Amino acid sequence: MGAAARGWSVGIGAGRVDEPLPPNARAASGPAFVLAREAVEAAKSRQRVVPLAVRGAHHQAGLDAESVLTLVAATAARRSAAGWEAIDALEAAGPDVRQEDVAAAMGVSQQAVSQRLRTALYDESRTAARAAAHLLVSAQG
Predict the structure, then answer these.
(1) Cβ–Cβ contacts within 10 Å for residue 124, how many?
(2) CA distance 44 to 34
(3) What are 47-75's pLDDT values in tens digits?
(4) How far is CA 54 from the centre of its chain?
(5) For residue 52, what is the enclosing H or E element?
């Protein structure tokens, strides 16, 4: 179940954080926190499948990160239960696991696992998430 279905709005602020860090996030300060508050408000105003917004010190990189993260989250929101089952089994088994081993643990064929992962756009989502991480670093300014 995605954030939208649970009533959550996700706002990400990419920028400098004042140090030293306090014991809790509410006491923290710096541009990243101001940007995060702006992003949460922007995410709340969205009438989309994915209520997510990014605001960055570098504005365009923040918007680019938002676009990629929105696509990743929308893809995840549309996955079937079988797709999530294959992804969860693969990720729980560790980075060096083979699809054959996941299939055996799930009681299905390797081809079934492969098809579920392809349909879920698993590899594409992981690649896009890495790109979003790089964009978030750029958005910090």
Answers:
(1) 13
(2) 16
(3) 777 999 999 999 999 999 999 999 999 99
(4) 12
(5) strand 52-56
